[in-house]
Amino acid sequence: MTAGTSTTAARFRRFAEIEVRGVSPLYEQWCLGISTDPELLTLLDHLPSPRRQPNLLLGAARLAGVPLEDYRSFRRFVLQHWETIRRTLETRTTQTNEAGRCAVLLPLLTQIGAAEGRPLALIEVGASAGLCLYPDRYAYRYSPGPHLAPASGSPMPALDCRVSGPAPLPSALPEIVWRAGVDLSPLRADVPDDVRWLEALVWPGQEHRTERLRAALGVVRREPPLLVEGDLNEEIAPLVARAPQDAVVVVFHTAVLAYLDAAGRARFASTMTGLTGQRERPVHWISNEGAGTLTGVAGALGKSPGERDGSFVLRHDGRTVARTGPHGQYLDWLP
Ligand SMILES: C[S@@+](CC[C@H](N)C(=O)[O-])C[C@H]1O[C@@H](n2cnc3c(N)ncnc32)[C@H](O)[C@@H]1O
User: Fold this and answer.
1) Do 15 and 153 lie in a common domain?
2) CA-to-CA dists, residue 56 to 7, 86, 115, 187, 220, angstroms
3) Same domain, 81 and 139
4) I need a labelling partner for 320 at 20 to 30 A (CA). Which of 138, 152, 167, 294 fits?
5) Mutation test of ligand 1: which of 159, 183, 188 has the most ligand atoms closer than 8 Å to its C-beta?
6) Is 287 touching ligand 1 by the criterion CB < 6 Å?
7) How far apart are CA 34 and CA 74, in angstroms?
8) Residue 107 shares a structural domain with residue 41
């Protein structure tokens, strides 16, 4: 077994034990199986490191139609369909778009709108298909806490979010007058191949997320956001300049910074620090990212002992305010 193989094995074992254990038993079984399968590990090791991500392989296998059965049938299918799966691994990236994350963004969005007394212009960097740009279109069930829904109704069941700590839970949905996103490769809600890819990225055992995804895609299709193709570091300042003058600009991102190298993250953090400090038109910056992705930036939290594995960290203008569930399932507001 080469050093590369042992690294790939460790990635799959970690994914099994940290990401999917207790959430998707089938993916846990498959990833543990791969982590000790020299034949599959060798195939994967012919690909560059970013193309060996567990979530990418699982999505590519799902897109190719792998049956949701035990590891033996998974590996048989992957070996039989390797050329198709490899093509997906080489051309797609993981772009999981989870509207559920709006549940942990909403308290800050409502708070910002109320404090500024003006409607919001939302800009999401790393927007995928843009589903998180519609927090005012979904319903929410905080527990303990309020249940909220748009006056026109929600296209999907309420987003459930367990809450602890002194979270400033909203009593109303924010008014949003403009929505824009940037992505290296924006996905389109009206392109069937893109929709199939988004569905393939939802884990088995999480069927409520597929239902939510389809409903949120319907929202985007009816009222598409401005989605710009490009690198967030190049596009963020021009997008901020395009936002309507009478709205409060909020730039946010969730599950994106892990895709950037250290220099890219530092450049982004520095741009955002500049934009939040602008005298004429300060923007608000909400970051909801895996713990550790903004290490070294003022206010960033690293991993701490006893931290829930896989938690995200929520920050407002660089100040850490909460730990959050990676799909928006919980919000642990810090005292
Ligand atoms: C895991 S998805 C998250 C999507 C969405 N933010 C959400 O939480 O549902 C990460 C997205 O970031 C995009 N991305 C990664 N690096 C980027 C960059 N340098 N510039 C713009 N988008 C990027 C990817 O293409 C992908 O769509």
Assistant:
1) no
2) 16, 10, 41, 16, 24
3) no
4) 138
5) 183
6) no
7) 10
8) no
Average pLDDT on 238-256 reads 97
| Pocket mutation for ligand 1, best pick of 185, 232, 256 (most atoms within 8 Å of C-beta) | 256
Question: Scanning the structure block, which residue is given the tokens 């931290």?
Answer: 307
* Residue ending a domain, choose from 66, 91, 116: 91
Please choose from 55, 102, 124, 128 the residue to mutate so as to test ligand 1's pocket, defined by most ligand atoms within 8 A of CB. 128
Q: Is the CB of 260 under 6 A from ligand 1?
A: yes
Residue 273 confidence class, pLDDT cut points 50, 70, 90: very high
Summarised one tens digit per residue, pLDDT across range 113-134 is 999 999 999 999 999 999 999 9
- Strand-by-strand arrangement of the 159-164 sheet: 147-148, 140-143, 159-164, 330-333, 319-324, 312-316, 284-290, 248-254, 120-125, 176-183, 226-229
19-32, pLDDT tens digit by residue?
899 889 999 999 99
What is the number of domains present in the chain? 2
Average pLDDT score over residue span 29-55: 96
Domain extent for 184: 99-333
Asked if residue 118 and residue 45 are part of one domain, the reply reads no
Domain boundary among 31, 58, 91: 91
Q: Indicate the average pLDDT of the chain.
A: 92
Spatial contact of 285 and 272, defined as CB atoms under 8 Å apart: yes
The predicted model scores a pTM of 0.92
CA of 142 to the centre of ligand 1 (A): 26
